[in-house]
Specification:
- The protein is an all-alpha fold.
- The chain has one domain (about 20-165): de novo design (two linked rop proteins) (Up-down Bundle), CATH 1.20.1440.
- It is built from 7 helices and no strands.
- The longest helix is centred in the N-terminal third of the chain and has 56 residues, at about 5-60.
């Protein structure tokens, strides 16, 4: 083999490696974006269930006005959120206010026995579980994407093609606090 053939083979191997690395980064980035979209779907589902739950509880707990206002504000913040960080914070706030709502419901035996309330509570619980799973999946994909971006020689490609690291979906300090139960 002559020198030109060897150089050509080396160039082809390098170009092929760059293409494969680039495509793998694109695939991972798209998986991260899709995973966030799945979280968004579950957040929307939860957001759609909340008004029905509030209306059901209102009939039994008329004096819990502040709680209803907090849930409505948190829901509005989620609808208005335009960044991942804002959506995460609004979602975390909704989770906290829903915990309060279910705690208040414990004080109303007739409400707890209401079929509509029980169905909504079950649907919201299922949705919360899906959100938790989706967050975990999102964070796993973000970790894979960010790790791949930091590995050599990928880190060179990352700079060349301006890839950006993704943020993890993290719990707020309030969510990390132990739950206080009072009887």
């Amino acid at each position: 083999m002559n020198t030109l053939t060897i150089i050509l083979i080396i160039v082809v191997v390098i170009v092929l490696a760059v293409v494969l690395l680039y495509n793998s980064l694109i695939r991972l980035r798209n998986q991260v974006d899709n995973s966030w979209a799945q979280i968004d779907v579950q957040l929307k589902r939860r957001n759609d269930l909340i008004p029905n739950l509030i209306e059901t509880v209102k009939g039994y707990a008329k004096h819990e006005k502040e709680l209803f206002e907090n849930i409505t504000k948190a829901r509005s913040a989620l609808v208005a959120a335009d960044t991942l960080d804002k959506k995460a914070k609004a979602s975390n706030q909704i989770t906290e206010t829903l915990k309060s709502l279910f705690a208040v419901a414990e004080n109303y035996p007739k409400l707890r026995a209401n079929e509509n309330f029980l169905q909504l509570q079950e649907e919201l619980t299922g949705t919360e579980n899906k959100i938790a799973y989706s967050r975990q999946n999102y964070n796993d994909l973000v970790m894979s994407f960010n790790t791949k971006m930091q590995n050599f020689p990928n880190n060179v490609l990352v700079k060349m093609f301006s890839f950006k690291a993704k943020d993890l979906f993290q719990a707020t300090e309030k969510e990390k606090e132990p739950v206080k139960v009072k009887f």
